[in-house]
Amino acid sequence: MRVPGAKGSPLEHKARGSDVRIVYSPADALEIAKKNPNKEVIFFAIGFETTAPSTALTLMSAKKQGIRNFTVFCNHVTIVPAIRAILDSPDMRLDGFIGPGHVSTVIGCRPYEWIAKKEGKPVVTSGFEPLDLLQSIVMLLRQLRASEAKVENQYKRVVPWEGNRAALRVMAEAFELRPYFEWRGLGFISQSALRIRDTYAVWDAERRYSVPETRVADPKSAQCGEVLKGVLKPAQCKLFGKECTPEHPVGALMVSSEGSCAAYYNYEHRKSLVTTISAVA
């Protein structure tokens, strides 16, 4: 809702009078369309493979029920090409990866094997509890100390090695890979996002409304790419804590509470501010 676009964020458009709503699932958006047959309802589908299966199931449901006043604006992205783009960068300074547990519940751990085998970087798929993250960091450090590079699954209670095959099937039914997609902070990455298949073209907002390909890159002064690659820490970005804050995000990494800049701002940065204020007092 707060992601800045060329003409403002969705939250700003809502303040101007547009009917912009937050839903808990795409099925809720489909239900809104069913209850309002005279309105065109567009679901803005975002997220990695974590959320794509639910969007696919909703498309299948819309087709089965013949609901024509509902479309999906598909902006789902895929994790592996993004990691590859970071690894291919000449100034990349990362020693290993904590694999995303939520994405891995769908795709499993096998897609990360090339990172260890070909790039020599250890990967540990982690859960989200504090102990999960601490254990995953220990597992990474042990690999680095032993000069090893392999894929380990710390989140075994949730993540199957081969992934969720039922979820992967419905994604394959409804989506196909885009030739390229522009990422904020990383630029264009080939085959890194999903689009709706021709069999579901009736429910594709891009086709129904002829959505133009508009570039909305981060400002040049925002250094999201460098933070992603480990070249800079968040506080070293020129905009961090000044023009770019969680309340008024400029860069991609400050928008989400899960973003590294937002986390750094809310914890590490605030902690140093409190220490400075206490020292002055």
Q: Which CATH architecture of the largest domain would you pick?
A: 3-Layer(aba) Sandwich
Dominant shape: globular
CATH homologous superfamily grouping of the largest domain: HypD, alpha/beta domain 2
Number of strands: 9
CATH topology tier name of the largest domain: Rossmann fold
Average of the residue pLDDT scores: 90
Largest sheet: 3 strands, parallel
Number of domains: 3
Low-confidence stretches: none
CATH class membership of the largest domain: Alpha Beta
How many helices in DSSP terms?
12
Distance between the termini: 38 Å
Helix content: 40-55%
Oligomeric assembly: single chain
- Please report which band the strand proportion falls in: under 5%, 5-15%, 15-25%, 25-35%, 35-45% or over 45%: 5-15%
Q: Numbering strands along the chain, what is their spatial order in the largest sheet?
A: 3-4-5
Rg from alpha-carbon coordinates:
21 Å
Structural class: alpha/beta
